[in-house]
Amino acid sequence: MTVTQNPGLSQTDLARRTGVDRSTVAELVSRLTGRGLLERTRLAQDQRAYALSVTAAGRVALRSAWRGVVAAQETVLAPLAPADRTHLLHLLRQLIAAHEAAERDHDRP
Asked: How many domains does the chain have?
């Protein structure tokens, strides 16, 4: 999903955005590339790094998996009243935004 939302993202940036360590991201990218779900192309500005993009097959797989994600989310949130669900999701979005802002501040020279 992160690569779909950020085409051209490098593996290093993918690791940073997802909180997954770089070696695990490298293994996942290798497997997804091998299955034809992701493509890697060298970055023009840094020939050591790869830009990632989702293939057509990857978009199909993501759409298929998304139904399961939504079902799982519904199961997890089912015990909460609708207003509480909305409040929880709002708080989680705030938490994510705060972490992303902290990372941007940390990455600035």
From this structure: 2
Per-residue pLDDT of the chain (109 residues; tens, 9 = 90+): 999 999 899 888 899 888 898 899 999 999 999 999 999 998 777 777 889 999 999 999 999 998 899 999 999 999 999 999 999 999 999 998 898 888 777 766 6
Cβ burial 24-45 (10 Å sphere, 16+ → b, else e): ebbebbeebbeeebbbbeeeee
Examine residue 74 and state whether it is found in any structural domain, yes or no: no
Residue 71 domain-assigned?
no
Contact (Cβ atoms closer than 8 angstroms) between residue 38 and residue 55: yes
